[in-house]
Design a protein that fits this description.
alpha/beta; six-stranded parallel sheet; 9 helices; 15 strands; 24% strand
Length: 349
């Protein structure tokens, strides 16, 4: 791999910090690294690979001579700056919701739809965290027997709301244990020893934005525009790993042994099942780890064509930072529309 000039947009957030760690741990070919954030965070000094890098405020010139932008600063920031970066010749891998459903913008999970990345025009979207975890389990099963309907309930950690929400969960848990009343300032309600339905905006159909992200993004990634999928998303008092309960109806019965075998060999997935000991994936099993753990596969006793499973995955890692870096690695490895070519054309073919 040729070394690239890399910029991290949103470098001081929870995902930005994870991106820095993974760039080092995965030995990503970095020729130079620029850390970009809001003016509020500018001037912060970050140590990476033994050297200090000062965070810069993002501006029009920030993307000059940059090959790759890993963006994780929210949709409004991405909408403002991603086109600027592309115009300067950079490839943008964007972790926000800004471009995920835009026609012509690939929405990619490398283990599931790597071929979609070929068709970018300078921006590749990183899916929502819950969607990434879900499609890693759905795709190998759909390859055996087509999906007909998916019902998913999520148990989402504080990390999905950012580093400040994680800090608040720690602080308010101590408050409750001390016998005092917790008062939340980051989330709408205290998550300490509590849970609540996801706090994203509600749509007219009674679903929240997070639930509709799962519906629409899963359809796009898997190329199943008519897939019947319904979701209920819940915030739970866990720091950084999401869990999902998934009920899957197939076009015809899928034997459990075939489903297990497919998941066991699927990239990015590990099976964890011990029915005798009642031991299945937990958030503590995946925190700080790459794979999505799947277990408790069982026949749905209410429907002969349906199976049920449980999964857990690290929201910050595979649900965000790792998937973004894997997209960048995919582009380099396959030689698709090399970022350097953008410098003259301004867009990828």
């Amino acid at each position: 791999m040729s070394a690239l000039n890399v910029a991290l947009l949103g470098a001081t957030g929870a995902v930005g910090v994870e991106l820095l760690e993974l760039l080092d741990a995965r030995d990503f070919p970095v020729a130079s690294l620029k850390l970009l954030a809001s003016p509020r965070s500018a001037g912060t000094v970050v140590c990476w690979k033994g050297r200090d890098i000062t965070v810069e405020a993002v501006d029009e010139q920030a993307f000059d001579a940059v090959d790759l932008v890993l963006a994780s600063a929210g949709s409004s920031v991405s909408r403002r700056w991603a086109p600027v970066a592309v115009s300067r010749g950079a490839l943008v891998v964007d972790n926000s919701s800004a471009f995920r459903l835009e026609p012509g913008v690939p929405l990619v999970v490398p283990e599931v739809n790597p071929e979609a990345a070929r068709h970018h025009s300078g921006i590749i979207a990183n899916p929502n965290c819950t969607t990434i975890l879900l499609v890693l389990a759905l795709a190998p099963l759909h390859a055996l027997v087509p999906l007909r309907r998916v019902v998913v309930s999520t148990y989402q950690s504080a990390s999905g709301a950012g580093a400040r929400a994680m800090d608040e969960l720690r602080e308010l848990s101590s408050t409750v244990l001390a016998g005092s009343q917790p008062v939340s300032k980051v989330l709408p309600y205290s998550l300490a020893f509590n849970l609540f339905l996801h706090n994203s905006p509600m749509a007219a159909n009674g679903y929240c934005e997070e639930e509709m992200k799962m519906v629409n993004e899963t359809r796009k990634i898997m190329g199943l525009p008519d897939l019947r999928l319904t979701a209920t998303c819940v915030r739970v008092p866990v720091l950084r790993a999401h869990s999902e309960s998934v009920n899957i109806t197939f076009a015809s019965p899928l034997p459990l042994d075939q489903a297990r075998a497919a998941l066991d060999r699927a990239a990015g997935v590990e099976l964890l099942e011990d029915f005798v000991a009642n031991r299945f994936p937990m958030p503590t099993d995946v925190s700080g780890r790459d794979p999505v753990l799947v277990g408790r596969l069982r026949q749905d006793i209410s429907h002969p064509d349906a199976l049920e499973l449980w999964l857990c995955g690290d929201q910050i890692r595979k649900g965000a930072a790792l998937n973004a870096i894997q997209i960048a690695e995919l582009m380099l490895r396959e030689g698709w529309s090399r970022p350097a070519a953008l410098a003259t054309s301004g867009a990828c073919p």
